[in-house]
Amino acid sequence: MPQLLKYNKKFDELNEEEKKLFEINKKSIADFVEQSSSISDTNYATRNAHAKTYTIADGTFFIDKNIPEELLLFFDSEKFDLTIRLSNAGLKINTAGKDIPAYGFAVKIKDENGELIANFPLVNFPLFPTNSVSQFLKLFTALNRFYIKKWSNIFSLTAQAAKIIPSFFTLSFVKNILNLLGKRNDFILSFDYHSVGAYRLGEHMIKIKLVPKSVNKKFGRKLKMQDALKNYFQDHNYAADVFIQLCYDLKGQPINRLNVEWKNSPYIKIGEVVINKGSLLDSRDCTNELLSFNPFESKAFFQPVGKIQKLRDEAYKVSVQTRRKINKLLHKHQ
Asked: What is the DSSP code (8-state) at residue 153?
């Protein structure tokens, strides 16, 4: 195996301007979550991204028998228990009409004692629209405020969105947009899922890709997504191969350029994710709605890497703390 690039905490460091913008953004996240029940017309507080839960399921991660010897250290069991959440990326829960085809496949990996090993929030679009932390924070803050203040914040949101648009015009981004448009009506389980940003694998860094096996992309097209998934798991098992790419150099595998795909790093199969039929949990159960898939709760050697990934840490904490505080109060008074 060629020489791998080692993790360095400098990949994660924010500058002073980014830190100030992040504090403003965290306040907008808390404000959004506090008002999310009225924004989405629900009887509970929602997440401020991937608000809509399609389903939650138990699954199993089987380690490939031919995994490279260098990786065995991190996968010291033949299989691991999973909790999986399938979601839509929208900030607001859409109850009427068709959802945009932006899906999440969040995975919680546990050991034989039920202890958390890692959270990996995967999505069906492999790239991020900007490499600028400042631009992203300004846009995300404007988006949160738009949902809270409605049209009074439309000009700010439009201005920030306009600044992001030039980042879309990379070959990788355009190719993946066209691919997503072609698959916009496909069944949620037929998509590949990606880590977008990088993660640690001990001293090294990886990206993750999940590729389904033989899922009918036309399944349940006339049904609501929750109903389609319920029907699917009444009669079908789901299986997907898990691949990683390793980071060898920043030119081919950039850590903080998320709007381009990694090149010159082969996909290595490390295992298989399986969800057996009949494994769905009640997504409306309060305990399941309170689940967090914060990747910074993972063990140290599986933590996220990169500046935009770094934002997730405190953003997740603000969101989940606000959400749990409100939902526990609501649950108490039901």
From this structure: G
